[in-house]
């Protein structure tokens, strides 16, 4: 498991398939079962799973970090003691500490670091030269942009230079230079569409596309129908204070509204999440892109996309954490991962015990402590972890 993959650990909680299940030793499993069975069975289980620190009288093997008891829907957590390991995660299962591997064979794309060719994805990469995976050069044939070296897109079947911001010539973001996206006015005519810098279109300005109410050309990322076209919204955020409590898992949460639109537009999402607490009764809404935590993340993400370092990434991989880590300043990369995690996982890390965070997110909990120069912090709303909400992959 690579450091890049570890930076996506908790993203599995939402959608990604990072980890498989590692069972603890049978002997330990049986021993723990006996102890847990001595406790009275809970007749009315709480709405959410329980996450608690391992009691001292519950024996775990050295490589066990979480034991799951299905009778009580409880996860008992014990952080990995060896800094060269991390806690592999899977829902409703026992987890074990397994070794961290710096490189995952066959996963680096053009523009990303490698030691040997075997570290690169052989579907897209031709060689590992000077520690970087090399793809297809300009003028050569390609099946998709992922084949091409940084600075190139797959246009009309060959790797060609990306279109600069402010110029026409795109059918998707990946035809534009890495700091810009494609404002598509004609999905069939490459020459009609303009590349525009990410985050540069202010509220209530017209844009051509709006998918699921999101367009990253917009300053605040949300968009809505407007007079037969679309327009960027103002800063839509949580109504009232955060964290915003909600009633049931996956219940709808709705943002503030923008009265510029008729009718007024607000963003709604099934974003009610269980917090990882000892009670199993706390549920909170996901944050919205206009909340301060997300705005901090997008500000730094858009900053990355405007750097010369971002141009070292393959166009398809412009927001991939592996390529950002390969090419950007480490402190800024860590900050980006911190901001993303703090926003994306905000509802589930409220009132969470440090031992629970440290079990599921040991690498990033350590980054959190270093960032704040603290040895212990029970506040979960500044958790460290990587990953990307929709973009980082």
N-to-C order of helices and strands:
HHEEEEEEEEEEEEEEEEEEHHHHH
Proportion of helical residues? 10-25%
Poorly predicted sequence stretches spanning 5 or more consecutive residues: 1-43, 366-393
Mean pLDDT reading:
81
> Which percent range describes the beta-strand content?
15-25%
Shape call:
flat
Protein name: Dickkopf N-terminal cysteine-rich domain-containing protein
Signal peptide: 1-21
Keywords: Signal
Structure notes:
Residues 1-21 form the signal peptide. It comes from Blepharisma stoltei. Keywords: Signal. This protein has 393 residues and is α+β, with helices and mostly antiparallel strands. The chain has a domain at 3-99. The protein contains seven helices and 18 strands. It has helices at residues 3-6, 26-37, 292-305, 321-327, 330-344, 354-360, 362-372, and strands at 50-53, 64-69, 74-77, 85-87, 95-99, 127-129, 132-134, 152-155, 158-161, 180-183, 194-197, 206-207, 223-226, 229-232, 253-258, 265-269, 272-274, 283-285. A five-stranded mixed beta sheet has the order 1-3-2-5-4. Strand 6 (127-129) and strand 7 form a beta hairpin. Helix 3 packs antiparallel against helix 5. It is flat. Mean pLDDT is 81; it is low at 1-43 and 366-393.
Question: Could you give a short description of this structure?
Answer:
The protein is an alpha+beta fold and 393 residues long. The protein contains 7 helices and 18 strands.
Task: Spell out the key features of this protein.
single chain; 393 residues; alpha+beta; five-stranded mixed beta sheet; three-stranded antiparallel beta sheet; 7 helices; disordered C terminus
